[in-house]
Amino acid sequence: MSDASGPTGMSDGRPLIPLTVSDRRFLLVCLLTFVAGIGVVTLLFHRAFPEASIGFKVDRGEARVLAEQFLAGQELSIEGDRFAGIFDADDDSKVYLERTLGLEAANQAYQDPVKLWRWQLRWFRPLRKAEVR
Fold first, then answer.
1. Do 70 and 115 contact (CB within 8 A), yes or no?
2. 47-56: long-range pairs with CB below 8 Å, 24+
3. Quick one: pLDDT at residue 9?
4. CA dihedral 39, 45, 48, 54 (to 10 degrees)
5. pLDDT computed for residue 75 by the predictor
6. Average pLDDT, stretch 67-93?
7. How deeply is 123 buried, as exposed, middle or buried, from its count of CB atoms within 10 A (0-12, 13-18, 19+)?
8. Does this model's pTM top 0.70?
């Protein structure tokens, strides 16, 4: 049995077909397009998605602890309840600020004075109407 995996053929016996000039040009255009796309994404990602630059001061676990302390101070019992928490934004306010201030100014406003993002936490029991938010 001969080994046909050399430069003249593939392991299944088909011969290799050399790349033409137009094939090489096409591959070069694809590579340049890919590199340009990576550059555009790198430069404009935070402008297009300001949420990506959020500085989390409190993560989900810390938010839960703070909320449980608050509820204990309010004398609300959550013992035996299930917990659910999501990170959410006030999309209407976010869109309004982006359209009135522009993306650059809105991104600056998101950093400190404007609080659009929040943890929404709740404690509940299945099949019970009441829940603590």
1. no
2. 47/103, 47/104, 47/107, 50/98, 50/103, 50/106, 50/107, 50/110, 51/89, 51/117, 53/107, 53/110, 53/111, 54/110, 54/117, 55/111
3. 57
4. -170
5. 84
6. 85
7. buried
8. no
What's the mean pLDDT in 111-130?
A: 78
Task: Lay out the sheet containing 82-89: strands in order across.
Answer: 82-89, 117-124, 131-132
124: helix, coil or strand?
Answer: strand
CA distance 112 to 133: 25
Q: Which residues pair with 87 in a beta bridge?
A: 119
Confidence at residue 133, expressed as pLDDT on a 0 to 100 scale: 65
Say how many C-beta atoms besides its own lie within 10 A of residue 40's C-beta.
11
DSSP 76-109: ---TT-EEEEEEEE-HHHHHHHHHHH-HHHHHHH
